[in-house]
Design a protein that fits this description.
binds cytidine-5'-triphosphate, 29% helix, 12 strands, binds magnesium ion
Length: 258
């Protein structure tokens, strides 16, 4: 790991004071329905360690992150708190645990509500993306420090995408209505990084259901920018993703051995 990959804070809305600090909110309150029956997704083991612990460590790996707020399954806050107590984190990193809500959006809002003063940059990171490399985290923070109100890691798409008229019955043929130009599309990941005041305003203002936080900032009329994402920042969603995540961990262990 590099010593300090981040330049000193520059004067911008998120870091006007040189004391600008970064917190990460980790929504981990989902059930993981698409992964199949079992414990809540964030608590399932990867390489013997709960997915959530990998995600917390991925945020704490950035020297800029000094607080991690974990949004636990609604009745799982005590369990998550003891998990965090039992797993080593860097000394410079504090953590808080709060219970989550019905939707991801609600869970992120509950995490934001628990954020103490003094953190001007906020990352929102899915517990379901346990393997994001620290360089991606740092690139997001750096772009917020450089003045962007909202930053998302993004990758070009491998598949061509079709817009369809959804069928009433799943599995029935669906008419294709358009094929967007793939070169204009990106798949976005987390951590997404924000000027804190902007993200709080977005969560207070936008009432539509959304699947990421940056789209709420777009709805405020502000510009969201991308930085390069990473293939290891994929979201563990379906059973095959667990196989891939185990393989990535095994490869890392092998590489660390040399
Ligand atoms: N999440 C959350 N609160 C919710 C729903 C989701 O904090 N009420 C979190 C999940 O724990 C996950 C992230 O949001 O870290 C991304 O959501 P997703 O991958 O959809 O996870 P789940 O909702 O758990 O999975 P599924 O949709 O298959 O049930
Ligand atoms: Mg979900």
């Amino acid at each position: 790991m590099s010593d300090d990959p981040l330049p000193p804070p520059s004067p911008n809305p998120a870091s006007g004071r040189t004391t600008a600090r970064t917190a990460a909110v980790i929504p981990a309150a989902g059930r993981g329905v698409r992964l199949g029956p079992g414990a809540p997704k964030a608590l399932r083991a990867l390489g013997g360690t709960p997915m959530l612990i990998h995600a917390v460590r991925a945020m704490a790996a950035s020297r800029a992150v000094s607080l991690v707020v974990v949004v636990a399954p609604p009745d799982g806050a005590p369990e998550v708190k003891s998990l965090l107590d039992a797993h080593a984190l860097p000394d410079r990193t504090d953590f808080l645990v709060v219970p989550g809500g019905e939707s991801r959006q609600e869970s992120v809002k509950l995490g934001l509500d628990a954020l103490p003063p003094g953190y001007d940059i906020v990352l929102v990171h899915d517990a379901a993306r346990p393997l994001v490399p620290v360089d991606t985290v740092d690139a997001v923070i750096e772009a917020v420090r450089d003045g962007a109100p909202a930053v998302v890691p993004a990758l070009p798409l491998a598949d061509t995408v079709k817009q369809v008229e959804p069928a009433d019955v799943p599995g029935e043929p669906e008419p294709v209505v358009a094929t967007p130009d793939r070169s204009l599309l990106r798949a976005v990941q987390t951590p997404q990084g924000f000027d804190r005041a902007t993200l709080v305003r977005a969560h207070e203002t936008v009432e539509d259901d959304v699947t990421d936080d940056a789209s709420m900032v777009e709805q405020l009329g502000l510009t969201v920018v991308t930085v390069p994402g990473h293939e290891e920042a994929f979201k563990v969603t379906r059973p095959l993703d667990m196989v891939l995540a185990e393989a990535v961990l095994a490869r890392r262990r092998l590489n660390d051995g040399f």
